[in-house]
Amino acid sequence: MLLSLAHEAGPFLTGRSEAQRLRESVLGIVQRDGEAVVDLEGVEVISPSFADEFFAKMPEELLDSKQVRFEHLTDEFSLIVHTVVAQRRPA
Amino acid sequence: MSVKPPADLEVALRGGYYFGEIERLIADLQPLFAVTDPVAVEVDLSGLVFIGPTATALLLATANRLAAIGCSVFIAPPRNRLTRNYLLRSDFVRLFTATDPPEPFGRLTPAGFRPCLRFDGDAECIAVARELSDAVIERARTDIAARGAIKTAMHELAENVMYHADSLDGGYAAVAYSRRRREIEIGIVDLGIGIRASLNKNPDYAVADDVAAVEKAMIPTVTSTPERNSGYGLTFTKLLLLLNGGSMRIRSGHGAATLGPAVDYSAKEHPFPGTLVHMRARTDRPLDATSAWDELAKAIKNVVSNANTDAS
């Protein structure tokens, strides 16, 4: 099932509490449907704290197994995601 | 492109900080004022729908102070296009990041508006005084005496920052005209030592608290540097505005002065780390410099007379 972040929370994604809510929504979808596609189309701004709370705290096994996938992840957002994930999961 | 780290501290500013709504902004910025160590800070402006010039100057001063002490500061821009455009043409991005803004915006430059101005040094002090007074003169009802008075007032207020604030990065000023309210708002902000600490440098003017400090600062001739300036700036500006039907508000520490239409000195719950002067001048009434100078002369005479009485 597709979850559009811009539709759920608007084009400016900021704040840990909002990120936690959305992350829990994604986990709920995975539990129910087995997988979730997170669509970033329409997102204009992602704050570092939102990125940390949403992406970096997403369970690693769900990302590795592709049960959680991302669409329309621009180069700029990819860089933010990789940076916050690396901070939480140093190699 | 570098990525800011996730924040240790998040502050969200929502709604509108309309002309004059400075106290609420001071309250909302308290967590940022309290920062003394280099931490990662996020300031979420995405829910901001309106911000006036004094509030803009204050926000910019705060962001730059955080950057100056080594904080990583991420600012989420306003979702509201008009508010975003206002910050862009106020030069918020350029003054905070020292880069050009990432998106195009309309400059407009209507009369009575100037981008936010940062000043730190004599030349910049003179320039900002000129910009502020030009903006006021463009909209206010003035004669030749009033135009001179406005220039004097703005210069005195800017010099107050230069000589008394001991601020890390000088001061910030902004001005904008509201057609609907028929008034011009001017804000001058510094995050320096505040009025009490400044006055306490001169034993003749030492005060015990911030309210007493703000009250004393409104007395003509009071200045911690009598060899350098007159001590008339705040008093004269107040008189000019009150005669116009405008108002002036000063915040420093816990002290607050509200001048116009009534006069009130009080202690506020939330301290302001520095000095903020917020002025509103009506454009539907004249600025009467002649009467303001007369009132100033009377006020000075009273001060001198009281001082002589105390001495004898």
User: Strand fraction band of chain A?
Assistant: 15-25%
Most residues in contact: chain pair = A-B, 20 and 16 residues
Rounded to an integer in angstroms, the radius of gyration calculated over CA atoms of chain A is 12 Å
What is the typical, i.e. mean, pLDDT of chain B? 90
Spatial strand arrangement across the major sheet of chain B: 6-7-8-10-9
Topology:
The complex is a heterodimer of chains A (91) and B (312).
Chain A: E1 2-4, H1 5-9, E2 12-13, H2 16-33, E3 36-39, E4 45-46, H3 48-56, H4 60-64, E5 68-71, H5 75-88
Parallel strand pairs in A: 1-3, 2-4, 3-5
Helix pairs in contact in A: 2-3, 3-5
Chain B: E1 9-12, E2 15-17, H1 22-28, H2 30-33, E3 40-44, E4 48-51, H3 53-68, E5 72-76, H4 81-89, H5 92-97, E6 114-119, H6 122-139, H7 144-164, E7 171-178, E8 183-190, H8 194-199, H9 210-217, H10 233-244, E9 247-259, E10 263-282, H11 289-311
Parallel strand pairs in B: 1-3, 2-4, 3-5
Antiparallel strand pairs in B: 6-7, 7-8, 8-10, 9-10
Helix pairs in contact in B: 6-7, 7-10, 10-11
Plain-language structure description:
Chain A has 91 residues and is of the alpha/beta class. Chain A has 5 helices and 5 strands. Chain A has helices at residues 5-9, 16-33, 48-56, 60-64, 75-88; strands spanning 2-4, 12-13, 36-39, 45-46, 68-71. Chain A is globular. Chain B is α/β, with parallel strands linked by helices and 312 residues long. Chain B is 42% helix and 24% strand. Chain B has helices spanning 22-28, 30-33, 53-68, 81-89, 92-97, 122-139, 144-164, 194-199, 210-217, 233-244, 289-311; strands at residues 9-12, 15-17, 40-44, 48-51, 72-76, 114-119, 171-178, 183-190, 247-259, 263-282. In chain B, the strands form 3 sheets. Chain B has a 5-stranded antiparallel β-sheet, with helices on both faces. Chain B has a 3-stranded parallel β-sheet with strand order 1-3-5, with helices on one face. In chain B, strands 2-4 form a two-stranded parallel ribbon. Chain B is globular. The model of chain B has no long low-confidence stretch (mean pLDDT 90). The chains are: A alpha/beta (91), B alpha/beta (312). At the A-B interface, helix 3 and helix 5 of A face strand 3 of B.
